[in-house]
Amino acid sequence: MLKKADIDTIDEIIRTYQQFIVTTHVNPDGDAIGSEIAFAHFLKQRKKSVKILNSSPAPDVFQFLDPNGEIEIYDASRHIEYVSNADAVFILDISDWGRLRELGEFIRGSHLTKVCIDHHPKNEPFVEHDAIYPKASSTGELIFELLHGLDAKLTTRISEALYTAILTDTGVFRYSNTTPRVHQIAAELLGRGINPQQIHKDIYENQSHARVKLMASALASLKFHYENQLATMIITQKMLAEAGASLKDTDGLSDFPRTIEGVEIALLFIELDNDRVKISFRSNGNLVINKLAQSYNGGGHAFASGATLTGTLDGVMQKVLTDAAALFRSR
Ligand SMILES: [Mn+2]
């Protein structure tokens, strides 16, 4: 998957320089965190200095990947010396400046050599060294191929980080991005002393009571449209408060309605503060939904995307449902 030219370029950058930054998108997921930890540990193997600097904290369920607190939240005043003296930055699992927030602004205008390793579709170039492969299941898969190509030692730490990245971005090896290669890589990682039962338990069998209460009220909001092909759920500020839940408890809830028979598209509308509504678009693989997300300045993968709109929950829902009609007409 990864072109030799990309592996060679990255190898050259690592050999040339000494001080690195690794970063990823705001609200990092398992792929983002796993890829960062694996890649940063590889840089340490090569005796480089490296800091993982993110815009927002990792979800609690991924804390097991970072027992020593290597992931830091970027703070301009605290990190200015490190980032000013750094030589290069690796931007993982994202190719969008907006989702890199304040650190992105710094990177964009900086002297740093910039490398992006990502699997989100992107039409225009992002940074000077783009290794963007939309066919890859996950950034973790790309990091595996890179490390493999560079003869890295796949330690247990690196292996569990990459396994987590691939596990989460393939929906536990269920989504259409689960290729034979994905299973070959997983097999390779399982041979490195990781504990897949424990990893699954840490991530998926550790749900807070607040999250389950929130799920119950979200399910109660389930509605069907367009001959049951489109399912919607909502989460309001009131529902969050009543469940004692926070926005991070909404992660992954959008997946459920997609599993209902006959449903092609699931939309989850989350009421944020300040009159904004976040929408998760999930498709069963027959209808591409990222074009719709892009029409609201959102983005993502063909079958899993997101966007944030301004307006009331009712107003936004009405607009998106009207716009979504075109997806069913064109079938
Ligand atoms: Mn990813």
Features:
331 residues; Diaminopimelate Epimerase, Chain A, domain 1; 2 domains; 12 helices; binds manganese (II) ion
What does this molecule look like?
- With 331 residues, this protein is α/β, with parallel strands linked by helices.
- The protein has two domains: 4-204, inorganic pyrophosphatase (n-terminal core) (Alpha-Beta Complex); 209-329, Diaminopimelate Epimerase, Chain A, domain 1.
- The protein contains twelve helices and twelve strands.
- The strands form two sheets. A six-stranded parallel β-sheet has the order 3-2-1-4-5-6, with helices on both faces.
- Helix 4 links the parallel strand 4 (88-92) and strand 5 (113-118).
- Helix 5 runs antiparallel to helix 6 (156-169).
- The longest helix has 17 residues, at 313-329.
- It is globular and about 55 Å long.
- The mean pLDDT is 96.
- Manganese (II) ion binds next to loops.
Q: Regarding CATH, which class of the largest domain?
A: Alpha Beta
Structural class: alpha/beta
List the bound ligands: manganese (II) ion
Physical arrangement of strands within the biggest beta sheet: 3-2-1-4-5-6
Q: Report the CATH topology name of the largest domain.
A: inorganic pyrophosphatase (n-terminal core)
* CATH H-level superfamily title of the largest domain: inorganic pyrophosphatase (n-terminal core)
Assign the CATH architecture of the largest domain. Alpha-Beta Complex
List the helices and strands and how they pair.
Elements (H helix, E strand, L loop, with lengths): L3 H13 L2 E6 L5 H16 L3 E6 L16 E3 L2 H10 L2 E5 L8 H8 L4 E6 L10 E4 L6 H11 L6 H14 L10 H11 L5 H9 L4 H12 L2 E3 L4 E6 L1 H7 L21 E7 L4 E8 L6 H5 L4 E2 L3 E7 L2 H17 L2
Parallel strand pairs: 1-2, 1-4, 2-3, 4-5, 5-6, 8-9
Antiparallel strand pairs: 7-8, 9-10, 10-12, 11-12
Helix pairs in contact: 2-5, 2-6, 5-6, 6-7, 9-10
The chain binds manganese (II) ion (MN).
